[in-house]
Design a protein that fits this description.
By secondary structure, the chain is mainly α. The protein has helices at 2-21, 34-41, 45-78, 81-99, 106-111, 115-128, 149-152, 158-188, 221-236, 238-247, 250-267, 274-302, 305-336, 338-357, and strands at residues 31-32, 137-138. The longest helix has 34 residues, at 45-78. The radius of gyration is 31 Å and the shape is globular.
Amino acid sequence: MATKQTESVTIISLRKLSLETREPPPKESKTFTVEDAVETIGFGRFHIALFLIMGSTGVFWLAGSLLIIGLASVVIPTIGWRWLIRIASIPGIILILAFKFIPESARFNVSTGNTQAALATLQRIAKMNRSVMPEGTLVEPILEKRGRFADLLDAKYLRTTLQIWVIWLGISFAYYGVILASAELLERDLVCGSRSEAEVVVTVMDTEESQSPCHCHMFAPSDYRTMIISTIGEIALNPVNILGINFLGRRLSLSITMGCTALFFLLLNICTSSAGLIGFLFMLRALVAANFNTIYIYTAEVYPTMMRALGMGTSGSLCRIGAMVAPFISQVLMSASFLGALCLFSSVCVICAISAFTLPIETKGRALQQIK
Protein backbone atom coordinates (compact mmCIF):
# COMPACT_ATOMS: atom_id res chain seq x y z
CA MET A 1 0.00 0.00 0.00
CA ALA A 2 2.81 2.43 0.89
CA THR A 3 4.44 1.82 -2.47
CA LYS A 4 1.21 2.51 -4.39
CA GLN A 5 0.60 5.74 -2.42
CA THR A 6 4.17 6.85 -3.10
CA GLU A 7 3.71 6.20 -6.83
CA SER A 8 0.45 8.17 -6.85
CA VAL A 9 2.05 11.11 -5.09
CA THR A 10 4.97 11.00 -7.49
CA ILE A 11 2.68 11.05 -10.55
CA ILE A 12 0.67 13.97 -9.13
CA SER A 13 3.86 15.87 -8.33
CA LEU A 14 5.18 15.35 -11.85
CA ARG A 15 1.89 16.59 -13.34
CA LYS A 16 2.01 19.70 -11.16
CA LEU A 17 5.62 20.27 -12.14
CA SER A 18 4.80 19.92 -15.86
CA LEU A 19 1.91 22.37 -15.53
CA GLU A 20 4.04 24.89 -13.65
CA THR A 21 6.92 24.72 -16.13
CA ARG A 22 4.74 24.82 -19.27
CA GLU A 23 5.33 28.04 -21.19
CA PRO A 24 2.29 30.26 -21.62
CA PRO A 25 0.94 30.46 -25.19
CA PRO A 26 2.17 33.55 -27.09
CA LYS A 27 -0.32 36.39 -27.28
CA GLU A 28 -1.63 37.06 -30.78
CA SER A 29 -0.92 40.61 -31.90
CA LYS A 30 -4.05 42.56 -32.78
CA THR A 31 -4.49 43.77 -36.35
CA PHE A 32 -7.07 45.82 -38.21
CA THR A 33 -7.86 46.75 -41.80
CA VAL A 34 -8.80 50.06 -43.40
CA GLU A 35 -12.47 49.05 -43.25
CA ASP A 36 -12.18 48.31 -39.53
CA ALA A 37 -10.59 51.71 -38.94
CA VAL A 38 -13.28 53.51 -40.93
CA GLU A 39 -16.03 51.77 -38.97
CA THR A 40 -14.33 52.55 -35.64
CA ILE A 41 -13.68 56.20 -36.45
CA GLY A 42 -17.23 56.77 -37.62
CA PHE A 43 -18.83 59.79 -39.24
CA GLY A 44 -17.69 63.24 -38.18
CA ARG A 45 -16.32 66.64 -39.11
CA PHE A 46 -13.88 65.26 -41.67
CA HIS A 47 -16.66 63.65 -43.68
CA ILE A 48 -18.77 66.81 -43.58
CA ALA A 49 -15.85 68.84 -44.92
CA LEU A 50 -15.17 66.19 -47.57
CA PHE A 51 -18.83 66.22 -48.59
CA LEU A 52 -18.82 69.99 -48.99
CA ILE A 53 -15.61 70.04 -51.04
CA MET A 54 -16.42 67.12 -53.32
CA GLY A 55 -20.07 68.09 -53.58
CA SER A 56 -19.06 71.54 -54.76
CA THR A 57 -17.56 69.98 -57.89
CA GLY A 58 -20.98 68.66 -58.82
CA VAL A 59 -23.89 70.61 -57.18
CA PHE A 60 -22.03 73.87 -56.49
CA TRP A 61 -20.86 73.44 -60.25
CA LEU A 62 -24.55 73.77 -61.21
CA ALA A 63 -24.92 76.80 -58.97
CA GLY A 64 -21.80 78.21 -60.61
CA SER A 65 -23.32 77.73 -64.05
CA LEU A 66 -26.42 79.63 -63.02
CA LEU A 67 -24.28 82.34 -61.45
CA ILE A 68 -22.12 82.71 -64.56
CA ILE A 69 -25.17 83.01 -66.80
CA GLY A 70 -26.58 85.65 -64.47
CA LEU A 71 -23.28 87.51 -64.36
CA ALA A 72 -22.95 87.30 -68.14
CA SER A 73 -26.19 89.20 -68.57
CA VAL A 74 -24.69 92.08 -66.55
CA VAL A 75 -20.92 91.90 -67.12
CA ILE A 76 -20.70 91.30 -70.88
CA PRO A 77 -22.83 94.30 -71.96
CA THR A 78 -20.98 96.64 -69.54
CA ILE A 79 -17.31 95.74 -69.03
CA GLY A 80 -16.88 92.89 -71.52
CA TRP A 81 -16.41 89.13 -71.69
CA ARG A 82 -12.80 89.21 -70.52
CA TRP A 83 -13.90 90.34 -67.06
CA LEU A 84 -16.46 87.53 -67.02
CA ILE A 85 -13.63 85.00 -67.52
CA ARG A 86 -11.60 86.59 -64.72
CA ILE A 87 -14.55 86.44 -62.33
CA ALA A 88 -15.39 82.87 -63.38
CA SER A 89 -11.86 81.69 -62.54
CA ILE A 90 -12.19 82.64 -58.86
CA PRO A 91 -14.27 79.57 -57.80
CA GLY A 92 -11.77 77.31 -59.57
CA ILE A 93 -8.86 78.79 -57.62
CA ILE A 94 -10.78 78.32 -54.38
CA LEU A 95 -11.46 74.66 -55.24
CA ILE A 96 -7.79 74.02 -56.01
CA LEU A 97 -6.85 75.36 -52.60
CA ALA A 98 -9.62 73.33 -50.96
CA PHE A 99 -8.44 70.10 -52.58
CA LYS A 100 -5.16 70.40 -50.69
CA PHE A 101 -7.18 69.58 -47.58
CA ILE A 102 -8.11 66.13 -48.93
CA PRO A 103 -5.54 63.42 -48.05
CA GLU A 104 -4.59 60.52 -50.27
CA SER A 105 -6.85 57.49 -50.00
CA ALA A 106 -5.81 55.16 -47.18
CA ARG A 107 -6.95 52.15 -49.19
CA PHE A 108 -4.78 53.21 -52.12
CA ASN A 109 -1.74 53.67 -49.90
CA VAL A 110 -2.24 50.28 -48.28
CA SER A 111 -2.76 48.55 -51.63
CA THR A 112 0.59 49.93 -52.80
CA GLY A 113 2.39 48.89 -49.60
CA ASN A 114 2.63 52.39 -48.11
CA THR A 115 1.13 51.44 -44.76
CA GLN A 116 2.65 54.34 -42.84
CA ALA A 117 1.00 56.93 -45.09
CA ALA A 118 -2.32 55.12 -44.78
CA LEU A 119 -1.99 55.04 -40.99
CA ALA A 120 -1.20 58.75 -40.92
CA THR A 121 -4.32 59.49 -42.98
CA LEU A 122 -6.55 57.43 -40.70
CA GLN A 123 -5.06 59.06 -37.59
CA ARG A 124 -5.71 62.49 -39.08
CA ILE A 125 -9.35 61.59 -39.77
CA ALA A 126 -9.75 60.19 -36.24
CA LYS A 127 -8.31 63.38 -34.76
CA MET A 128 -10.68 65.58 -36.78
CA ASN A 129 -13.66 63.45 -35.82
CA ARG A 130 -12.53 63.40 -32.17
CA SER A 131 -12.57 59.63 -32.28
CA VAL A 132 -10.08 56.83 -31.61
CA MET A 133 -8.23 54.37 -33.79
CA PRO A 134 -8.71 50.60 -33.34
CA GLU A 135 -6.00 48.79 -31.40
CA GLY A 136 -3.32 46.84 -33.19
CA THR A 137 -1.37 47.08 -36.43
CA LEU A 138 -2.78 48.18 -39.77
CA VAL A 139 -2.56 45.30 -42.23
CA GLU A 140 -3.92 44.69 -45.69
CA PRO A 141 -2.87 42.04 -48.17
CA ILE A 142 -1.12 43.56 -51.16
CA LEU A 143 -2.73 42.42 -54.36
CA GLU A 144 -0.37 40.29 -56.35
CA LYS A 145 -2.07 41.37 -59.54
CA ARG A 146 -3.37 44.85 -60.28
CA GLY A 147 -5.66 45.97 -63.04
CA ARG A 148 -4.20 46.29 -66.52
CA PHE A 149 -5.60 47.76 -69.70
CA ALA A 150 -5.62 44.27 -71.22
CA ASP A 151 -8.06 43.15 -68.50
CA LEU A 152 -10.70 45.49 -69.91
CA LEU A 153 -10.43 43.65 -73.22
CA ASP A 154 -10.53 40.21 -71.64
CA ALA A 155 -13.15 37.86 -73.06
CA LYS A 156 -15.30 38.26 -69.94
CA TYR A 157 -15.50 42.06 -70.21
CA LEU A 158 -14.73 42.77 -73.89
CA ARG A 159 -18.30 43.32 -75.04
CA THR A 160 -19.21 45.28 -71.91
CA THR A 161 -16.15 47.52 -72.26
CA LEU A 162 -16.74 48.32 -75.95
CA GLN A 163 -20.41 49.12 -75.39
CA ILE A 164 -19.61 51.26 -72.34
CA TRP A 165 -17.08 53.23 -74.38
CA VAL A 166 -19.67 53.87 -77.08
CA ILE A 167 -22.18 55.05 -74.47
CA TRP A 168 -19.70 57.35 -72.70
CA LEU A 169 -18.64 58.94 -75.99
CA GLY A 170 -22.23 59.38 -77.13
CA ILE A 171 -23.48 60.80 -73.82
CA SER A 172 -20.66 63.32 -73.68
CA PHE A 173 -21.28 64.23 -77.33
CA ALA A 174 -24.97 64.85 -76.60
CA TYR A 175 -24.33 66.63 -73.27
CA TYR A 176 -21.91 69.23 -74.56
CA GLY A 177 -23.79 69.35 -77.82
CA VAL A 178 -27.02 70.51 -76.22
CA ILE A 179 -25.18 73.09 -74.11
CA LEU A 180 -23.46 74.59 -77.14
CA ALA A 181 -26.55 74.19 -79.32
CA SER A 182 -28.60 76.17 -76.80
CA ALA A 183 -26.37 79.20 -77.23
CA GLU A 184 -26.32 78.73 -81.00
CA LEU A 185 -30.11 78.48 -81.20
CA LEU A 186 -30.61 81.64 -79.18
CA GLU A 187 -27.81 83.66 -80.77
CA ARG A 188 -28.69 82.95 -84.38
CA ASP A 189 -32.44 82.51 -83.81
CA LEU A 190 -32.42 79.30 -85.83
CA VAL A 191 -35.78 78.07 -84.52
CA CYS A 192 -38.76 79.82 -86.02
CA GLY A 193 -40.95 81.64 -83.53
CA SER A 194 -38.44 81.28 -80.71
CA ARG A 195 -38.51 85.06 -80.24
CA SER A 196 -41.36 87.47 -80.38
CA GLU A 197 -41.29 90.24 -82.97
CA ALA A 198 -40.63 92.85 -80.29
CA GLU A 199 -37.46 91.05 -79.20
CA VAL A 200 -35.91 90.84 -82.65
CA VAL A 201 -33.40 93.62 -83.22
CA VAL A 202 -33.58 94.89 -86.78
CA THR A 203 -30.60 96.73 -88.16
CA VAL A 204 -31.06 99.06 -91.09
CA MET A 205 -27.55 98.71 -92.46
CA ASP A 206 -26.12 95.20 -92.26
CA THR A 207 -22.36 95.28 -92.56
CA GLU A 208 -20.35 92.48 -94.06
CA GLU A 209 -19.00 91.68 -90.59
CA SER A 210 -22.46 91.17 -89.15
CA GLN A 211 -23.27 88.64 -91.89
CA SER A 212 -20.13 86.61 -91.14
CA PRO A 213 -20.68 83.25 -89.41
CA CYS A 214 -17.92 84.21 -86.94
CA HIS A 215 -19.70 87.38 -85.87
CA CYS A 216 -21.06 87.33 -82.31
CA HIS A 217 -24.60 88.56 -81.71
CA MET A 218 -25.42 89.86 -78.25
CA PHE A 219 -27.93 87.92 -76.15
CA ALA A 220 -31.16 89.61 -75.21
CA PRO A 221 -32.31 89.44 -71.55
CA SER A 222 -34.82 86.75 -72.52
CA ASP A 223 -31.97 84.60 -73.87
CA TYR A 224 -30.21 84.63 -70.50
CA ARG A 225 -33.49 83.72 -68.84
CA THR A 226 -33.86 80.76 -71.21
CA MET A 227 -30.33 79.57 -70.42
CA ILE A 228 -30.91 79.78 -66.67
CA ILE A 229 -34.21 77.86 -66.81
CA SER A 230 -32.79 75.14 -69.06
CA THR A 231 -29.74 74.73 -66.80
CA ILE A 232 -31.99 74.06 -63.80
CA GLY A 233 -33.20 71.03 -65.74
CA GLU A 234 -29.97 69.21 -64.87
CA ILE A 235 -31.27 68.56 -61.35
CA ALA A 236 -34.98 68.49 -62.09
CA LEU A 237 -35.06 64.86 -63.23
CA ASN A 238 -32.81 63.49 -60.48
CA PRO A 239 -35.63 62.01 -58.30
CA VAL A 240 -37.16 60.26 -61.31
CA ASN A 241 -33.70 59.11 -62.40
CA ILE A 242 -33.00 57.60 -58.97
CA LEU A 243 -36.33 55.75 -58.97
CA GLY A 244 -35.73 54.44 -62.48
CA ILE A 245 -32.24 53.19 -61.66
CA ASN A 246 -33.43 51.34 -58.55
CA PHE A 247 -36.67 49.88 -59.91
CA LEU A 248 -36.10 49.44 -63.65
CA GLY A 249 -32.41 48.68 -63.46
CA ARG A 250 -29.41 50.46 -64.94
CA ARG A 251 -29.68 49.17 -68.50
CA LEU A 252 -33.38 49.80 -69.06
CA SER A 253 -33.30 53.17 -67.31
CA LEU A 254 -30.37 54.34 -69.43
CA SER A 255 -31.88 53.10 -72.68
CA ILE A 256 -35.14 54.95 -71.94
CA THR A 257 -33.46 58.27 -71.12
CA MET A 258 -31.16 57.98 -74.16
CA GLY A 259 -34.16 57.28 -76.39
CA CYS A 260 -35.99 60.30 -74.98
CA THR A 261 -32.88 62.41 -75.56
CA ALA A 262 -32.91 61.41 -79.23
CA LEU A 263 -36.60 62.35 -79.46
CA PHE A 264 -36.18 65.79 -77.91
CA PHE A 265 -33.26 66.59 -80.21
CA LEU A 266 -35.62 66.09 -83.15
CA LEU A 267 -38.37 68.12 -81.44
CA LEU A 268 -36.08 71.15 -81.56
CA ASN A 269 -36.81 71.31 -85.30
CA ILE A 270 -40.48 71.99 -84.64
CA CYS A 271 -41.62 75.57 -85.23
CA THR A 272 -42.50 76.57 -81.70
CA SER A 273 -42.89 79.52 -79.37
CA SER A 274 -40.28 80.83 -76.97
CA ALA A 275 -41.93 78.87 -74.14
CA GLY A 276 -41.83 75.71 -76.24
CA LEU A 277 -38.13 76.15 -76.95
CA ILE A 278 -37.44 76.63 -73.24
CA GLY A 279 -39.39 73.44 -72.49
CA PHE A 280 -37.46 71.41 -75.05
CA LEU A 281 -34.08 72.70 -73.85
CA PHE A 282 -35.10 72.11 -70.22
CA MET A 283 -35.97 68.46 -70.92
CA LEU A 284 -32.83 67.92 -72.98
CA ARG A 285 -30.61 69.21 -70.17
CA ALA A 286 -32.49 67.04 -67.68
CA LEU A 287 -32.17 63.91 -69.84
CA VAL A 288 -28.47 64.28 -70.69
CA ALA A 289 -27.69 64.83 -67.00
CA ALA A 290 -29.68 61.68 -66.13
CA ASN A 291 -27.69 59.76 -68.76
CA PHE A 292 -24.43 60.81 -67.13
CA ASN A 293 -25.67 59.83 -63.66
CA THR A 294 -26.68 56.35 -64.79
CA ILE A 295 -23.54 55.52 -66.76
CA TYR A 296 -21.34 56.71 -63.89
CA ILE A 297 -23.11 54.31 -61.53
CA TYR A 298 -23.12 51.41 -63.98
CA THR A 299 -19.43 51.69 -64.90
CA ALA A 300 -18.38 51.77 -61.24
CA GLU A 301 -20.52 48.72 -60.45
CA VAL A 302 -19.78 46.48 -63.41
CA TYR A 303 -16.01 46.22 -62.98
CA PRO A 304 -14.30 44.46 -60.02
CA THR A 305 -12.21 46.46 -57.56
CA MET A 306 -8.91 45.71 -59.27
CA MET A 307 -10.23 47.13 -62.56
CA ARG A 308 -12.72 49.76 -61.41
CA ALA A 309 -10.46 52.81 -61.51
CA LEU A 310 -9.02 51.72 -64.85
CA GLY A 311 -12.49 51.25 -66.31
CA MET A 312 -13.63 54.67 -65.09
CA GLY A 313 -10.44 56.31 -66.37
CA THR A 314 -10.59 54.90 -69.88
CA SER A 315 -14.30 55.70 -70.10
CA GLY A 316 -13.58 59.27 -69.04
CA SER A 317 -11.01 59.51 -71.83
CA LEU A 318 -13.62 58.51 -74.41
CA CYS A 319 -15.92 61.07 -72.81
CA ARG A 320 -13.42 63.83 -73.62
CA ILE A 321 -13.33 62.78 -77.25
CA GLY A 322 -17.09 63.22 -77.46
CA ALA A 323 -16.74 66.63 -75.85
CA MET A 324 -14.12 67.67 -78.42
CA VAL A 325 -16.28 66.63 -81.38
CA ALA A 326 -19.48 68.32 -80.12
CA PRO A 327 -18.51 71.95 -80.97
CA PHE A 328 -17.95 71.09 -84.63
CA ILE A 329 -21.52 69.83 -84.86
CA SER A 330 -23.25 72.35 -82.58
CA GLN A 331 -21.57 75.46 -83.94
CA VAL A 332 -20.34 74.59 -87.43
CA LEU A 333 -22.68 72.00 -88.94
CA MET A 334 -25.71 73.56 -87.25
CA SER A 335 -25.06 76.86 -89.03
CA ALA A 336 -24.94 75.05 -92.39
CA SER A 337 -27.72 72.51 -91.82
CA PHE A 338 -29.84 72.83 -88.71
CA LEU A 339 -31.82 69.66 -89.35
CA GLY A 340 -28.69 67.72 -90.29
CA ALA A 341 -27.03 68.56 -86.97
CA LEU A 342 -30.12 67.57 -84.98
CA CYS A 343 -30.42 64.27 -86.87
CA LEU A 344 -26.77 63.48 -86.15
CA PHE A 345 -27.20 64.13 -82.41
CA SER A 346 -30.40 62.07 -82.41
CA SER A 347 -28.78 59.18 -84.29
CA VAL A 348 -25.89 58.99 -81.82
CA CYS A 349 -28.38 58.89 -78.94
CA VAL A 350 -30.31 56.06 -80.60
CA ILE A 351 -27.09 54.04 -80.99
CA CYS A 352 -26.33 54.63 -77.30
CA ALA A 353 -29.85 53.58 -76.31
CA ILE A 354 -29.50 50.30 -78.21
CA SER A 355 -26.05 49.74 -76.74
CA ALA A 356 -27.37 50.36 -73.21
CA PHE A 357 -30.31 48.00 -73.67
CA THR A 358 -28.06 45.18 -74.92
CA LEU A 359 -25.38 45.45 -72.22
CA PRO A 360 -24.58 41.88 -71.10
CA ILE A 361 -24.47 42.60 -67.35
CA GLU A 362 -27.17 44.19 -65.18
CA THR A 363 -25.73 45.54 -61.94
CA LYS A 364 -29.00 46.21 -60.11
CA GLY A 365 -28.89 44.33 -56.78
CA ARG A 366 -25.48 42.89 -57.65
CA ALA A 367 -22.74 43.00 -55.04
CA LEU A 368 -19.53 44.80 -55.97
CA GLN A 369 -17.03 42.35 -57.36
CA GLN A 370 -13.66 42.32 -55.58
CA ILE A 371 -11.64 40.16 -57.93
CA LYS A 372 -11.79 39.45 -61.63
